[in-house]
Amino acid sequence: MKRRVFTLVLWVAGLGVAHADTVAPGDVVWQDGTIPQSLTGVAGDPAEGAKVLSSKSIGNCIACHEVTALADVPFHGEVGPLLDGAGDRWTEAELRAILVNSKEVFPDSVMPSFYRVDGFIRPGKAYTGKAADDTFGPLLTAQQIEDAVAFLMTLD
Amino acid sequence: MKANTLHFAALGFAAALAAAPALADENAELIINGEIEIVTRTAAPAHLDGAFDEILSGWRFRSDETQSMEMDDFDNPGMIWVDAAREVWATPDGSEGKACADCHGAPEDMAGVRPVYPKWNETAGEVFTLQMMMNDCRVNRMGAEPWGTDKGQSIPMEALLASVSRGMPMDVAIDGPAAETWEMGRELYYTRFGQLELSCASCHEDNYGNMIRADHLSQGQTNGFPTYRLKNTKLNGVHSRFKGCVRDTRAETFNPGSPEFVALELYVASRGNGLSVEGPSVRN
């Protein structure tokens, strides 16, 4: 019994350490419509970011956007603009803002907000069609946002 | 500053894409069995207030192979259920010992029914979908158990009733006592549901003709229902389709048969007024 409690305490403490510098969705600091501060303090990894954009089960960005650099992944959508050159057109702080909450940058955009947890109408539990429960979280983790931004910055 | 100039460029690009939908074969026309002419493109009804210039059946957005499956009843897998429903039509059920045929004659005598549903039902004091009307007959005239929404015999029977109206223009009434339900449906159509905050209009009004990953977005019309889908190899009802689309916005869906989906069915059907009844259609 005692040992169990001890393990649990250690595990919780471990989580705390790993996430110490992570900014929660509600605490993101905006500056003139941009987010200059990293959400994790850990540099984004462009290779991981490429996975975020391509994978159906992560960002699924190419459902709506075409990206020439990801041409080996089939089926890019046409709902949003081509992302080639995004790293030239936008600063890192602007890209972070577009991903965290697209609606702050493009009012009424069909692009989802990837790091926001409130203000939804009938939010569901992922793609089950059931109501959201206590597992509800942002579409991407803070580090996935950083990785995606890092990848977008390589698009020139 | 950089951001501001570039928003404009990004928006311009999105608009250019939306203006040039890449349809499979823009000029293909649908004639079933070499005789039933189907209107798959026509002027938008006035109540759409200019949202579209013209309305297009989902058939126009499918590949050549999928399109051709609907051009001959022998190639249309949905017709298997239509044939099965003909038997149910003629078979007595319930405490009154009556069949549909006893009151209505041949299924062909029901031509013209499908295009006007969903429709206000005076006795019930609410808008009835075709499935609700079928169940009203079953319960009140046959003394039989109602069928579930989009379940059991509902879909085959709906497909039979659609098939005998193929080629007739969809023509649901949206005024008079149905107006309130229609307004509710319109409200739902433009509500951005779920964690992805997408409305029906986000995909089917603002982006029809565009690809969303591997899917070619249509206007989301309902004139082809019930629909045989290659994806699940069975006939699908309108409410089940709505449920799937709402689920895909990471939302808590409504259930087939719910007042919300009845209202949405009326509203979406009205967006297709003028397109021919096509059911059972073939889609992917």
From TrEMBL, chain A:
PROSITE patterns associated with the record: CYTC (PS51007)
InterPro entries: Cyt_c-like_dom, Cyt_c-like_dom_sf, Thiosulf_SoxX
GO molecular function: electron transfer activity; heme binding; metal ion binding
Keywords: Heme, Iron, Metal-binding, Signal
Signal peptide: 1-20
Domain Cytochrome c positions: 44-156
Pfam family membership, one: Cytochrom_C
Protein name: Sulfur oxidation c-type cytochrome SoxX
Organism whose genome encodes this protein: Maritimibacter fusiformis
Gene: soxX
Automatic annotation (TrEMBL), chain B:
Primary localization class, coarse: periplasm
Cofactor requirement: heme
MF terms (GO), sorted A to Z: electron transfer activity; heme binding; metal ion binding; oxidoreductase activity, acting on a sulfur group of donors, cytochrome as acceptor; transferase activity
Domain Cytochrome c: 85-170, 185-277
Residues given in the record as heme c 2 binding sites: 200, 203-204, 245
Enzyme class: transferase
Any one GO cellular component localisation term in the record: cytochrome complex
Pfam families, alphabetized: SoxA-TsdA_cyt-c
Cofactor remark: Binds 2 heme groups per subunit.
Annotated signal sequence range: 1-24
Reactions listed under catalytic activity: S-sulfanyl-L-cysteinyl-[SoxY protein] + thiosulfate + 2 Fe(III)-[cytochrome c] = S-(2-sulfodisulfanyl)-L-cysteinyl-[SoxY protein] + 2 Fe(II)-[cytochrome c] + 2 H(+); L-cysteinyl-[SoxY protein] + thiosulfate + 2 Fe(III)-[cytochrome c] = S-sulfosulfanyl-L-cysteinyl-[SoxY protein] + 2 Fe(II)-[cytochrome c] + 2 H(+)
Active site (catalytic residues): 245
GO biological process entries: sulfur oxidation
Compartment(s) of residence: Periplasm
Alphabetic keyword roster: Electron transport, Heme, Iron, Metal-binding, Periplasm, Signal, Transferase, Transport
SUPFAM superfamilies xref list: Cytochrome c
Residue positions binding substrate: 241
Residues annotated for heme c 1 binding in this entry: 100, 103-104, 137
Enzyme Commission number(s): 2.8.5.2
InterPro entries per UniProt: Cyt_c-like_dom, Cyt_c-like_dom_sf, SoxA
Family: Belongs to the SoxA family.
Self-association and partners: Heterodimer of SoxA and SoxX.
Protein name (database record): SoxAX cytochrome complex subunit A
